[in-house]
Amino acid sequence: IQKAFEETLDCSVNYPPVETVDLSDIKFYNSIMYISVAVAVASAINLAMLFRFVIRSRSRQTSVFLLCGCTRNRIRRMYIVEIGLISVLIFAVFSAVFHFAVLPNLVPLFEYIEVAYNPKVYLTIFLIYIVSIYLFLNFVILRTNKASPVEMLKERGK
Hints:
Layout: H1 2-9, H2 23-57, H3 59-67, H4 72-106, H5 113-116, H6 119-144, H7 149-157
């Protein structure tokens, strides 16, 4: 900017330097955010796969619910609410641990990391995490509970 002033006005201009953000820094912090989103999706898939074991171990309970008149959708919603509450608690605890224990130790290494992890980013990652859990858990529940209640009771007895 100072050079443009000097060329245009033909005089010496004292223009203070302006700090700008390096575009490579922006790409670097964006890639950190993408990695965080990928970790959130991977952990949602992992949690849904682990919850599949819980669903299979509760096949007797599920078959009793079905025999008593409970619909498959109500059972599905019951499982989703259960894992949703657990997931919200897990995300809140580990986000707090990251923000208050890990992030201050990373500030000397990464200059703008505190700015990169703001509440909007935490909220975005949380929403992606919850939506991923919801989608994958629905898929797991629908694939796991296909059998009739009588078949589920017989299968569990083996």
